[in-house]
Amino acid sequence: MKRKALIAVLVVAIVSSVNAQVASHRPTIAQSGPVAHLNTPVVRVNGVVLTQSDLLREMYTIFPYANQHNGAFPKAMEPEIRKGAMQMIIFEELVYQEALRRKLTIPAPRLAKAQANFRKQFNSDSEYENVLRQDFHGSKVLLVNKIRRSLLIEALLKSEIDAKSVVTAAEAKAFYDHNPEKFKVPDQFQFQSISILPPESPNPEQQKEAARRADDALRQAKATKSYKEFGLLAEKISEDDYRVDLGDHKAVPSAELPPEIVKVLSSLSPGQVSDLVRLGSAYTIIRLNKHDPARKRTFAEVRVQLSNNLRRQKADRLRTQLDQRLRKGAEVQEL
């Protein structure tokens, strides 16, 4: 499972509501209803009760944008967000209980540093005291216990997932050699366009007017000397959707382009501007920026990204396996 930096782990497992408070200067409790509602049990994990407050904090972690809308989640997304948050708080509680079973401990200096990092999140003493009062009943002991809990969860996950999800160069190279199709790059073109679009089903006069504007656009396009000049002209006079981005289509596989366009692009050199290309009743002018023939990426090109992808995949598998092991024999009851 992908874990965050220490301070983010604290936010996930302890007070994700802090993020909302710092951003809006209002505590999450005020946004989310009465305290009694937040204390409502939602699940029991091996006898340990987790509450609506625990669930809500994880929901904010999954969908932090809710804090920008007075704590509200999109109605269509809320069931899935709640489901994901429920799975996560159950998983983390099981991980915590496993850490206790293994008698893992947190060195005092590390715990002290985590407390200091947590305190640094706040802009003032009053802001800190407010969260301490609302989320920890004013108890610094409870706060320290929550921080220790988060660090124990992090420690077990590092040993069971992070340490075991390392991908060696040999593993990455073996995957590369056995999956050549995954690293093939299709023939593709990078180009810009300027288009003149008459109305749908234009009458002769409208088509004539479009042709006149296209000739004028071609004259101006041929006078451009660079990517930027052509792009600025596209933003000014082009009538296709790409005009908002300097007319740039980025990299497009030739298989996805009309044959007429591929033929024109294949005849151009980088930096060259085409003549008018007629597509139906529309007129298009193309500037070729780059042509990348089909090829296979070298291992050196993909090594870093491939290793990262394989590491994430391995971590996801390990996380799922850990979840399954911890749930086996556990008593989990949603309330």
Task: Give an overview of the whole structure.
With 335 residues, the chain is of the alpha+beta class. 56% of the residues lie in helices and 13% in strands. It is built from 14 helices and nine strands. Strand 6 (277-279) and strand 7 (282-292) form a beta hairpin. The longest helix has 29 residues, at 299-327.
Give the arrangement of secondary structure elements.
Layout: H1 6-13, H2 17-24, H3 28-32, H4 35-38, E1 41-45, E2 48-51, H5 52-62, H6 78-101, H7 108-119, H8 125-136, H9 140-162, H10 169-178, E3 184-185, E4 188-196, H11 204-223, H12 227-237, E5 248-253, H13 259-267, E6 277-279, E7 282-292, E8 295-296, H14 299-327, E9 332-334
Antiparallel strand pairs: 1-2, 1-9, 3-8, 4-5, 4-7, 6-7
Helix pairs in contact: 1-9, 5-6, 6-9, 9-14, 10-14
